[in-house]
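On clarity, I found the account of how folds are encoded harder to follow than it need be. For illustration, here is how one protein appears when written out as sequence plus structure tokens.
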Amino acid sequence: MKIDGTPYRSVWVDQADGWSVRIFDQTKLPWSLDILSLTDEDQVATAIRSMQVRGAPLIGAVAAYGVALALRTDASTATLDRVVAMLGETRPTAINLRWALARMRGALHNLPAADRVAAAYAEAAAICDDDVETCRRIGEHGLPLLRDIAARKQPGQRVNILTHCNAGWIATVDYGTALSPIYQAHDAGLDVHVWVDETRPRNQGAALTAWELGRHGVPHTVIADNAGGHLMQHGAVDIVIVGTDRVTRTGDVANKIGTYLKALAARDNGVPFWVALPHSTLDMTVADGVAEIPIEERNPVEITDLTGRTADGRIETIRVVAEGSPAANPAFDVTPARLVTGLITERGRCEASEAGLRALYPDKG
């Protein structure tokens, strides 16, 4: 995708030195576009934990490069196993992280130590390329849903899409998952408009989704998280498309906290609720998402404090919760498959069920 006409991916190897890894510091968006240089596995772990890099597919890609960085110092099997285990503990909910690390370990474990560094960079690059093509295809398979809605509209009426959190190109390596069909619809000339949930507590919708949609020229409006149901009641939402951090073999979906409530509102108002996912997000070992998917509990300060730009241009953090009041911060919730209209994958669309997923992914365990 492009920022002010310049094409970017969300992670890349620095061409100047040929080995350090560059990412956008997403904690600084939308106020500034800061590029970080990662030079070892500890910096990669910090970037993932602090959400300088976030989004399930992108976390996996950056962690893959973290393995390559570690092996530059010591290419032993002990280091390979250590860094895979260490990076795997940085975020518990998104399965893409462990998928990418398992792929790295599988590609490198049986190689001679002398060959591992070059192979690690090549495998990490392959993971990135796979993600880009996967997300492009997700967009292709989601685009007909938006075309069908547009075809039923009267002249001058736009297609209204609601999304939650950020599942755009800065949450992946490129294109995005939930936003990929939207970008492709916009680029094809469809009159689309996106309702962007602010997505408290970290405001990834207001800060990230709105930023990237705006930079690409896609019409959008930021709304409070609790406004979605109201808009659905009044016919202002044609379709909901969200991303996901993990999908069970039965079609349950773990995504940013608040997704479940959007699904309930969509079901009550007859609004289609679609989930876009890459193959790396599937977890065929889990059947019951509510019971089995670990939900990350993040620092309560994300609830109690807010960061933004003051009228005079300063970036400040303020407390918005009464002193002495405790806060709880579950980062994700699980939407049961029964509330999901269908899944949009790189292999096509399917119902949110084990039968639907196995029809598209017979090769999955």
